[in-house]
């Protein structure tokens, strides 16, 4: 492989040096992207955690490559956004083919109002490597233990005890909360006997990463090519994507009656790659076959054990919603768990993670299942409709929008859930909306939001007093902010950069205080104010 | 193409919802049953559109493909 995995060392944990059973506010099972991002978010709130991982490397081989705008914004808050932007490939031109014919192409123009692009392509191993590096910035708050496998748990009155296996012996540790970030095959989920049900698709996909010094495109601009009924193999679809280091991802959907192991053999793969990219020098970097399931847990919060990322939900890869969805879980849970552990909120606040992120997971599953269905018609009539859409898409915009090769992960609105105040302001952004970025004179709005509750006031008439414990941020004559948020508006912004409440200028401070009580999960108290 | 065809995307933002509904309506039908469903649907939608100039343009565009 082109990428050389660093091997991280095993270090004898204090529990095996005679220091007795350690007690941690949070124990995280799994150092995948989700577990590591979780530890960093908690550390930014001053919460100490221990991460246990059964491996000693970041993700081996090719998995996630596509990271969406909202994910990049969250990673920016966690401190690795700039590195991802610098290394990642921001593709601009997309081409869609039906057989040999190009149906249409599009140019994704950058949005000057946002720091982050629509998404970047970056191999998962780089993202994980950056997270490992970032964790080193918190030596007192994050204890990352490689080659420590969790093999059992016991629920106690005031927490959870985990049994951990290492090459030097086994030990127990205790935690107030355990975060199960142990991936789609989560063992703790299995041990707890939790149902993980959904739709399994029969299609197999063959992933090939090739290293190629010269781009197959006409210019240096990175492109994304997607085929329905590709001319070079019998399956229904194919995708070509550029990644950093001159690596290209080729994703082939295999027909239901092909033999995946046969298809993965070099004598099958190489001629096919040549048909796609022409007569160029290339090296095969990675080949794998996968199939997928769309499934989720019925509940993500089980007392003091909370499921985050792939352990809680899995989706098909179309639209790149797996890792992107998991990072939004982290964003949603971090501040809530920190507030509960600091005694600033009741444990009931965690129920809102369950409510909001199960909604997010359902949306992700719905969208990726729709894309999968469009790409794999089940009947002759479905195939006719799919072909008719592609046929009309060359000149009719409505049909172009129906073409579904994966709807890119887009954050869902949290409007209507417990923490958000009702939408009463007649203009401006609705509560539940993820805050859009906006250009400031010297930087970006989103870099000023997050971590704590913020009262964002915009315009000379919107001078409201922030409730205690809430930071205030005021803008006047700031066209970038006004364009996104409206003038003479007041917003209560959650630590995860979502709007909790929106008011027009002149609202009374009681209304703002009530919104804050609601947004911190203390609805019962609200009536008392 | 006739100038009476509305080129705007009028399904947005519900295009994916519509497509899912349409596929669900066909789910489990034999091909002939599906074709009959389409015929009924075209007639109902034509009445919803109402305007004869628009319908003429739509028929021309569909036939031209
Ligand atoms: C082919 C493919 C393409 C994809 N493309 C994209 C994409 O473009 N964009 C996107 O966002 N997502 C994509 N995904 C999904 C993405 O890879 C996952 O959603 C993501 O890795 C989930 O992260 P996680 O941390 O929850 O789980 P994982 O990455 O699976 O990490 C779990 C960790 O837990 C550890 N672990 C497991 N059991 C134990 C135990 N008992 N004790 C200690 N440690 C344990 C494992 O070693 C591992 O390190 C893709 C996935 C695949 C397979």
TrEMBL record, chain A:
Cofactor dependence: FAD
Any single Pfam family the record assigns to this protein: FAD_binding_3
Official protein name in the record: FAD-dependent oxidoreductase
Residue ranges of domain FAD-binding in the record: 24-367
Organism per entry: Sneathiella sedimenti
Record's keyword terms, sorted: FAD, Flavoprotein
TrEMBL record, chain B:
Protein's UniProt name: DUF2783 domain-containing protein
Superkingdom, taxonomy of origin: Bacteria
Biological source species: Sneathiella sedimenti
InterPro entries, per database record: DUF2783 (IPR021233)
């Amino acid at each position: 492989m082109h990428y050389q995995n660093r091997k991280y060392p095993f270090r004898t944990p204090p529990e095996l040096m005679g220091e007795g059973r350690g007690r941690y506010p949070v124990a995280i099972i799994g150092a995948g992207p989700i577990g590591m991002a979780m530890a960093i978010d908690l550390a930014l709130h001053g919460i100490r955690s221990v991460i246990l991982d059964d491996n000693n490397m970041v993700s081996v081989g090719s998995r996630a490559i596509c990271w969406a705008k909202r994910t990049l914004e969250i990673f920016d808050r966690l401190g690795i956004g700039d590195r991802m932007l610098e290394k990642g490939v921001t593709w601009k031109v997309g081409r869609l083919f039906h057989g040999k014919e190009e149906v249409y192409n599009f140019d994704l123009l950058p949005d000057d109002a946002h720091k982050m692009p629509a998404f970047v392509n970056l191999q998962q191993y780089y993202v994980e490597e950056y997270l490992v590096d970032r964790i080193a910035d918190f030596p007192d708050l994050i204890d990352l233990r490689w080659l420590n496998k969790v093999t059992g748990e016991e629920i106690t009155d005031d927490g959870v005890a985990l049994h951990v296996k290492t090459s030097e012996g086994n030990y127990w540790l205790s935690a107030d909360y355990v975060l199960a970030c142990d991936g789609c095959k989560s063992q703790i989920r299995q041990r707890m006997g939790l149902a993980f049900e959904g739709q399994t698709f029969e299609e197999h996909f063959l992933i090939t990463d090739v290293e190629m010094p010269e781009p197959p495109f006409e210019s240096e601009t990175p492109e994304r090519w997607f085929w329905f009924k590709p001319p070079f193999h019998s399956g229904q679809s194919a995708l070509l994507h550029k990644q950093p280091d001159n690596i290209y991802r080729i994703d082939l959907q295999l027909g239901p009656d092909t033999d995946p192991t046969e298809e993965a053999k070099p004598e099958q793969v190489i001629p096919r790659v040549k048909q796609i990219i022409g007569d160029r020098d290339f090296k095969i970097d990675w080949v794998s076959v996968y199939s997928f399931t769309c499934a989720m847990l019925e509940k993500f919060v089980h007392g003091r054990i909370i499921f985050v990322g792939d352990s809680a939900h899995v989706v098909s890869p179309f639209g790149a919603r797996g890792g992107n969805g998991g990072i939004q879980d982290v964003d949603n849970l971090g501040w809530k768990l920190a507030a509960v552990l600091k005694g600033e909120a009741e444990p009931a606040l965690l129920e809102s993670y369950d409510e909001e992120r199960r909604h997010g997971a359902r949306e992700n599953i719905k969208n990726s299942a729709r894309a999968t269905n469009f790409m794999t018609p089940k009947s002759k009539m479905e195939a006719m409709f799919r072909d008719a859409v592609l046929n009309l898409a060359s000149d009719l915009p409505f049909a172009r929008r129906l073409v579904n090769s994966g709807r890119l992960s887009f954050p869902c609105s949290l409007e209507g859930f417990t923490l958000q105040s009702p939408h009463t302001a007649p203009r401006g952004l609705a509560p539940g909306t993820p805050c859009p970025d906006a250009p400031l004179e010297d930087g970006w709005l989103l870099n000023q939001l997050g971590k704590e509750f913020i009262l964002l006031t915009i315009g000379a008439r919107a001078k409201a007093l922030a409730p205690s414990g809430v930071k205030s941020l005021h803008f006047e004559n700031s066209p970038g902010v006004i364009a996104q948020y409206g003038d003479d508006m007041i917003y209560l912004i959650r630590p995860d950069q979502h709007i909790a409440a929106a008011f027009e200028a002149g609202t009374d401070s009681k209304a703002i205080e009530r919104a804050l009580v609601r947004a911190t999960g203390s609805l019962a108290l609200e009536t008392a104010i | 193409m006739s100038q009476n065809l509305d080129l705007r995307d009028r399904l947005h933002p519900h295009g994916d919802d519509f497509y899912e509904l349409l596929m669900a309506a066909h789910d489990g039908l034999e091909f002939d049953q599906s074709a009959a469903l389409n015929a009924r649907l075209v007639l109902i939608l034509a009445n919803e559109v109402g305007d004869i100039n628009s319908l003429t343009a739509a028929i021309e565009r569909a036939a031209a493909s």
